[in-house]
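Ticket #4471: structure output looks truncated?

Reporter: J.K.
Steps to reproduce: submitted the chain below (361 residues) through the standard prediction queue, then opened the result file.
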Amino acid sequence: MMNQSLRKAAKSSPVPVQASPQKAIKQRTSRTNVPKTIKHKAVKKATVARKRGASLKRRSYSKRRRTTLMVEPLQQDRQTTNADTREIYEHGYQEGRIAGGELLLEEFLPPDLIIPDLTAREAIAVGVQALRKRGIPLLDSHAVYRELENALKDKKPYAFIRLGDGELLTMAQEKVLTSDEIKQAGSFLPYAGVTIPDLRARDEMASCIQVASLVGVPLSRHPHFQPLLFAVLRAHGIEYRNLRYTSSTMNYLLDEQGLMSKLLNGRKILVIGDVAEQLGQALRDKGMEVTGIVTPVSGYSDVARVVAEASGYDYDIALVAAGVAAIPICVHLAGIGGKVTFDFGHLANRMAGLDLPDRRE
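Returned output as attached by the reporter:
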């Protein structure tokens, strides 16, 4: 029965009919019998195509050759441009040195004599020595270490804060510089936690500086560092001789001299800031006791929350890496809890093995 079905299926399926060999040969032969005129035209077209191909290759090679030959003059032009730029820069630099040094010196030289071989550098050095009486002393690293160590031993409140361009520009708002000027000069301020204008931050910062135990100040003569420092203090009516100073980079110096580890060993440490987790782990890896971590610090507006949270921890010293907000955090924690607080800055990144962030971000 099954065989019958298969046979029926086979019968019903169309089977291709094969042509006889002679017929197939005849069909193939008939296809090749092309008239001579058509063959001639085809050969002619092929010849033209080959010639065109050769012509295109020649043009392509010629174009490549011209491009190659043009590279050297372009490189020479770039080298010439770079040399011109360096020459212009050097000329401007020398002109600036003359205008900023030699011409100023010339202005104050006596008209009735000349001083052989006098340089602006020498005159400035001698002049600064004569001005030392006007100077304000800065504590060195060993003095800073002793003060922090004594405060920890005696369990006395101590707030060490540091001022940089971010803090000074914040305090300069509508006192020394306009908000527009500060926005232009301090495009990094949002990264530091301050959105201009913020006059509340300005005034709170001024109050904090007056009660801080030690103020780190910039040594740089850049317009937004030391020159702005005294302009800001005067604008806020702060008697700068009543403050106690050290360098604003003292945090790094203490670490480089091994005094930071000496200070932190055996103490209960609170770490505050956006990299507090990483810094806390780095300190633990060194065998130090980290009793609390407060993170993140979401800008200056987050100060009150951070201070409230930090106050709940048991600690001896707080390391605060929180941009501009570090100043009120340090001062308030020292005042509320009677603790030692340290404006740690980007030393936190370095000790944690992290890259320094780009302030433009």
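Triage note (M.O.): checked the attachment and the full token line is present. The longest helix spans residues 36-108.
Status: closed, working as intended.
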